Amino acid sequence: MASVIIVGTQWGDEGKGKIVDLLTAYADVIVRFQGGNNAGHTIMFDGHKFILHLIPSGIFHESKKCLIGNGVVIDPSVLLQEIDNLTSKGVSVEPGKLLISERAHLIMPYHKAIDLAREAKAGKTKIGTTGRGIGPCYEDKIGRRGIKIGDILDQDLFRAKLSETLEEKNFYLEKYLSAEALSFEEIFESYLRMGERLAPYVTNVAVELEKARKQGARILFEGAQGTQLDIDHGTYPFVTSSNTVAGGACHGAGVGPTTIDEVMGICKAYTTRVGGGPFPTELSDDIGLHLRERGGEYGSTTGRPRRCGWLDGVILKEAVRLNGLSSLTITKLDVLSGLDPLKVCVAYEYEGERLDNIPGNIKVFSNLKPIYEELPGWQEDISAIKRLEDLPENCKNYLKFIEEFTGVPVNIVSVGPSRNQTIVLRNPFES
Ligand code: GDP
Ligand code: IMO
Ligand code: MG
């Protein structure tokens, strides 16, 4: 397979970063195509731990190209910090190894200020965003008043765009959100300086991808967030502001759908969610605590405790359909050791009626009762197991249940955070 998309099947934090890093060994080019530094992708190998927010998780492998596509929204100060931090730890992030689309939109200081002030004003009804300015930046992109990274490389164009936009933003910040207005000069100067540093990385990523494809390169598309956070298909309005489903890889990187060979869905063996919004299988008991503590379920970006619950098969089936999944990777299976029985939600109940699909009405989705199937658990520590056949019988049955319920084969099983704690049944680049 030459082009593989990796997406999250749940509400994010499924372990996408770990799997992208693992598969980078077999790929040539790794591309982020949506989201921004709301993402936090954790990579662990040889005792090192890195959390990446913008740079693709392939960066730790020498001689692989990492691309940031047009669909990503970039906070340049965060990107530069990430580049400096990796460089100081001996990881090469040279121009040529990292390439950034000239068409990617920039997160501006007013986007962050608006995100934070809106959430504060909303009080109880807030979304629980990461506060990184993601929503307001995508709003401006769609509203045709966004500033692209290519724009700050042209001083006159940038001056004109910023002065036009900032007047409106400051009015909104001051008069509606009771927040402070921002200084034109400060933003202009700092973004110009950051633009100068980023200029050598900026290029046409879609053209680079076409060149790579013509040379037979294997391309790995790294999704951020998860299917239920998709702006169109997720639990709206408790979602992020981009298309997180596999289709997003095409418009967010600039490739056509016929170039894609495989779509891999990453699925945590249970479910987590950060921020607000409905979560039918959420557990607020000792089992929920077990999952949070054993799974280290604290946000990689904001440090917030993640809400935890049983695996939700209904949202998994939804992910199969919306992404056209060809395979499933099950992560964090080790965290379930010691829980018996295990439960998997196979449908919902609403006012006495059985629902096999997610209802479009958020009020209905917020008041569902999960219908569970129980499966026997296992006690053994599985975190050092290297072969599927060595997993406890009940653990293998749990995987089989997921395969049969979703109709999608499991290709990788992850039993710990490190690269070497992985059982690869089928490598998408070797088949
Ligand atoms: P991402 O956003 O999808 O890349 O996932 P995050 O990095 O935000 O969260 C996944 C967390 O689980 C990270 O702390 C990983 O190091 C960790 N992790 C990944 N796979 C496994 C696994 O199989 N077992 C355990 N115990 N931890 C894992
Ligand atoms: P990765 O890539 C989990 C959630 C936020 C909030 C909602 C909207 O690490 O899986 P935003 O700041 O995007 O406007 O917030 O989306 N969210 C994530 N949750 N993992 C992520 O990314 C997330 N990115 C955003 O918590 O509920
Ligand atoms: Mg994460």
What does this structure look like?
- It is a single chain.
- The protein has helices at residues 16-24, 76-88, 109-122, 134-142, 155-176, 184-198, 205-214, 247-253, 286-295, 313-323, 362-365, 393-406, and strands at residues 3-8, 29-32, 41-45, 48-52, 65-68, 73-74, 98-101, 105-106, 202-203, 219-222, 262-268, 271-273, 307-309, 311-312, 327-331, 342-350, 353-355, 369-375, 410-414, 422-424.
- The protein is α/β, with parallel strands linked by helices.
- It has a 10-stranded mixed beta sheet with strand order 9-7-5-2-10-1-11-15-19-20, with helices on both faces. Strands 14, 16, 17 and 18 form a 4-stranded mixed beta sheet that branches. Strands 3-4 form a two-stranded antiparallel sheet.
- The longest helix is centred in the middle third of the chain and has 22 residues, at 155-176.
- It is globular and about 65 Å long.
- Guanosine-5'-diphosphate binds next to α1 and β3.
- 6-O-phosphoryl inosine monophosphate binds at residues 8, 11-13, 38-41, 127-130, 132, 134-135, 224-226, 229, 240-241, 274-275, 300.
Average pLDDT score: 97
Structural class: alpha/beta
Q: Main beta sheet, described?
A: 10 strands, mixed
Number of strands: 20
Radius of gyration: 22 Å
In one word, what is the shape? Answer: globular
Proportion in helices: 25-40%
Number of continuous helical runs: 12
Residue stretches low in confidence (pLDDT < 50, at least 5 long) are none
Beta strand %: 15-25%
Bound small molecules, by name, code or SMILES, are: guanosine-5'-diphosphate, 6-O-phosphoryl inosine monophosphate, magnesium ion
In the sheet with the most strands, the strands line up as: 9-7-5-2-10-1-11-15-19-20
How many angstroms does the end-to-end distance come to?
Answer: 6 Å
